[in-house]
Amino acid sequence: MEMEQGSHEESMETKLAELQQLFGPPPVLSSESTQSYDEIMTRLMEGFAPRNFIQQIYIKELADCTREMVRYTRYKTLTMEARFQQRLEFQAQRHRAAAQSKDTFAKGPAGQAREAATTPDDLLDGLVKEIDDMLLKPAAEIAHVRALEVVLVKLERVNKLLNAARARRNNILEQIEAYKAVREQRLRRISDKIIATESAAVAAQPKQVAEQQVAEPLVPPGEQQQ
């Protein structure tokens, strides 16, 4: 059993290597996982079990569309999260600017420290902690909603790309099913033709035997002369 599994994995790796040699490297970005794409290809190959090169082309296009859909779906999440992080960074910059203003005011115009309840060092230490708490604080749902409002137009464009990839995926699935149906019909016609030919041959055998029996004399030739 282990030998069969090993040979199956080796055969699948060979098929994937052959397709990559024909079509080039997979359409995977440097920030994406090539192993994930290979896993998608492997599962599609196992699920559809292509029997010829045409079906393998369909599987390759299906894997590309599936990878593209995953990319766009992930991109929507990253877009919202990036906008949220930009907002946090903007707030942190405002805190830094406010702290610097307080620091300048505390030192005075001549650079001499004014009498203040908080020294500049203490103020900066508190600022660092405040900014760290801000950046590390879990995002509230309302913050993501605000980020969504800002990037909504961009997400609508991404949705169009996602829907286009989904439409291509569905079209490929329909082509695969249509190709399988045509192939099954062709095989069925070939099978029916073979069965009809064999049936005709079997039906003709009793007739040939009967003709041979009529052609042969019932009495040997020597006895007929007597």
Q: How many DSSP-defined strands?
A: 0
Number of domains: 1
Quaternary organisation of the protein chains: single chain
Poorly predicted segments: 115-120
What is the H/E order?
HHHHHH
Question: Cα distance, first to last residue?
Answer: 78 Å
Find the structural class using helix and strand composition: mainly alpha
Strand proportion: under 5%
Which outline best applies? elongated
Summarize the main sheet.
none
Mean pLDDT: 75
State the helical fraction: over 70%
Discrete helix count: 6
Radius of gyration: 39 Å
Q: What would a concise description of this structure say?
A:
The chain is mainly alpha-helical and 226 residues long.
Structure description:
This protein has 226 residues and is an all-alpha fold. It has one domain (10-215). It is built from 6 helices and no strands. Helix 2 packs antiparallel against helix 3 (53-107), helix 3 (53-107) packs antiparallel against helix 4 (120-136) and helix 3 (53-107) runs antiparallel to helix 5 (141-215). The longest helix is centred in the C-terminal third of the chain and has 75 residues, at 141-215. It is elongated, with a radius of gyration of 39 Å. It starts with a helix and ends with a helix. The model is unreliable at 115-120 (pLDDT under 50).
